[in-house]
Write a structure and sequence with these properties.
Length: 278
């Protein structure tokens, strides 16, 4: 017993230290992504001693409790060992209760990626005209529109301008409104830690705060037809506020001529049947 315990304690200490050195996806480009990575690290660290305990017990038993004779006899049974029973129930309870409290606290925190129980409010109406620097902490509304087979983005706060690449300003809270024009897709911005179903007629709301500049992957994670694999956009970018302002101004300029043929901004869209000649 003591020999097992010593081996387990030493290996657990080494193991927990080792798994905490790893970097966990989706890393730290957004506040929410960092939270997810931390949770993964915590769960791995907690699981490591449990996993090592089981493996050590199996290996130890295979070596030291090996059957000596060829006769089929059971080893001595262990019944009613109070300290073992108490330890088993106590350790399990502590682990499970800790994770439950931790999970509830995380879910109720403000940084959670998805707004639980979204109020169903619409966006766009009365919010055009552009965010000014005075509204530093106001969330920027970005609509993600999935369609066979690419994503486009509409910036509700910037006159509903539609772009083919996703640019987000650094350290600015973003409210993503994910929808689809045709069938079910899924918007997956890997490094941001955001993955959201994109359904026609649905406005799926997610929150993200980018905290590191650089590019991030965008891809579709719902098999959506022949060119599903083509629905990846390597050009998602987190840029600083000045670059974002320059970029969005250029997009708005380019959009002026296109705006006439693009449907006006709406919280969600329904697929239109194709008519002859369209
Ligand atoms: Cu898709």
């Amino acid at each position: 017993m003591w020999r097992l315990l010593v081996i387990w304690v030493i290996l657990s200490a080494v193991g927990v230290f080792a798994v905490l050195q790893l970097r966990y996806p989706p890393y730290d480009q957004s506040l929410q992504g960092q939270d997810q990575a931390r949770t993964l690290a915590l769960l791995t660290a907690l699981a490591t001693p449990v996993f090592l305990g089981v493996v050590i017990m199996i290996l130890y038993s295979a070596v030291y409790f090996r059957r000596k004779t060829r006769d089929l006899v059971d080893g001595p049974p262990m019944l009613g060992h109070t300290p073992v029973q108490i330890a088993w129930v106590a350790i399990s309870s502590i682990l499970v209760l800790f994770l439950a409290v931790f999970g509830i606290a995380t879910l109720s925190s403000e940084n959670v990626a998805q707004l639980v129980g979204a109020t169903g409010r619409t966006i766009g109406g009365g919010q055009t005209g552009g965010a000014t620097s005075g509204e530093e902490n106001k969330e920027i509304h970005v609509q993600v529109i999935a369609q066979q087979w690419y994503f486009t983005y509409r910036y509700a706060d910037y006159g509903g301008v539609e772009t083919t690449h996703l640019y987000l300003p650094l350290n600015h809270p973003i409210e993503l409104h994910v929808t689809s024009l045709d069938i079910v897709h899924s918007f997956w911005a890997y490094e941001l830690g955001v993955k959201a179903d994109a359904n026609p007629g649905v406005d799926n709301i997610f929150h993200v705060t980018p905290q590191k500049t650089g590019s991030f992957q965008v891809r579709c994670s719902e098999l959506c037809g022949l060119w599903h694999g083509h629905m990846s956009d390597s050009a998602g970018q987190v840029v600083n506020q000045t670059d974002f302002d320059t970029w969005i101004a250029q997009q708005q300029k380019d959009f002026e001529t296109i705006a006439k043929v693009v449907p006006s901004y709406a919280p969600y869209y329904f697929p239109l049947p194709l008519t002859k000649g369209s």
